[in-house]
Amino acid sequence: MVSYRLARQHLVDAFARGRRTTEEICDAQPELRRVAHSCATPIAEPCPICEGDDLVAVTFAFGPGLPKHGRVLSDNAEMRKLRRRGRPATCYLIEVCRQCWWNHLRESYAVSG
Questions:
Q1: Which of 20, 32, 58, 89 could form a Cys-Cys staple with 63, CB 3.0–4.6 A?
Q2: pTM of structure
Q3: Where are the domains of the chain?
Q4: Which residues 6+ apart lie within 8 Å of 13 measured at CB?
Q5: Quick one: pLDDT at residue 113?
Q6: Are 95 and 5 spatial neighbours (Cβ–Cβ below 8 Å)?
Q7: For 76, phi and psi rounded to 5 degrees?
Q8: Would you list the DSSP string of the chain?
Q9: Interior CA angle at 35 toward 102 and 32, to 5°?
Q10: pLDDT, tens only, 68-91
């Protein structure tokens, strides 16, 4: 597993110091916004940008035999199904604020059958 917490903190610090604007970092794409509303898991911490309480996690899987744009894993059953395929995949966990549209890659990890 690879954690992107240090990169996240660097970006949050740059925002707090005025080196990054809200427009630069609150830029979730339309598909990510859609998935954040329909297939996300709440995160029990405030958004680091707007301090709102609508921070969620979205997981995408990429690998052989999966759609080119990735597959959204909405729950543990989806993860089990991915593992049963017996083919390698890489998952990306993205945090998204549904209030200001902050988004950041939180971690990535390999999944195999």
A1: 89
A2: 0.92
A3: 2-111
A4: none
A5: 65
A6: no
A7: -65, -30
A8: -EE-HHHHHHHHHHHHTTSS-HHHH----HHHHHHHHHS-EE-SS--TTT--S-EEEEEEEE-TTS-TT-EE--SHHHHHHHHHT-S-EEEEEEEEETTT--EEEEEEEEE--
A9: 45
A10: 999 999 988 999 999 998 899 999
